[in-house]
Amino acid sequence: MRGDGKGAVIVEEQRQRKEIKPTGREAPWRLVLLNIDNVASSVYVAAVPGAPAPPEVRNVLSTACTVKYQLPADEGDDQVTGYHLQRDHVTTSGDAIGWETVSTEPITALEFVVDQLKPLSEYRFRVAAENKFGIGDFSLASHPVKCPPDLESANIRLSVLQRYTRLFIRKIFIYKHQL
Question: Which of 30, 50, 127, 169 places its Cα 20 to 30 Å from the Cα of 3?
Fold first, then answer.
């Protein structure tokens, strides 16, 4: 719980209920709970990071792109230790497949190269920050980006087409001269 007025701790003491409001301090609160045998247990109430701004997508290639994001305005009650990046693939029929995580481990940098994308496909991205208390909310989605065609396969197809065209023209030329 942070001292930002967004919450309070409710404590029951001898069947009376007390509300302890935040004091404005940014440090995590520490509660000590006593059981019936007067054995104390500490409980820390702390916040996860807020949602970052929507990520920016750059350097879009046929099968990869770079996604850049910023620290969230609210890091929670501890520094951000990593990011969780997700993508949403929109099919050619306009259907969204759903959010998929792009890395099995938290990402420590403020940008990440996402690969294994499909040429001519459209994607959106979102990111969440993590601190030692957990993962915060995901950002709003980035603007959709469309991967360009795979030029290498297009060049191969063009090359094959050119070879067949040349072969076809040669056969027509030879046929004309035989008449």
Answer: 127
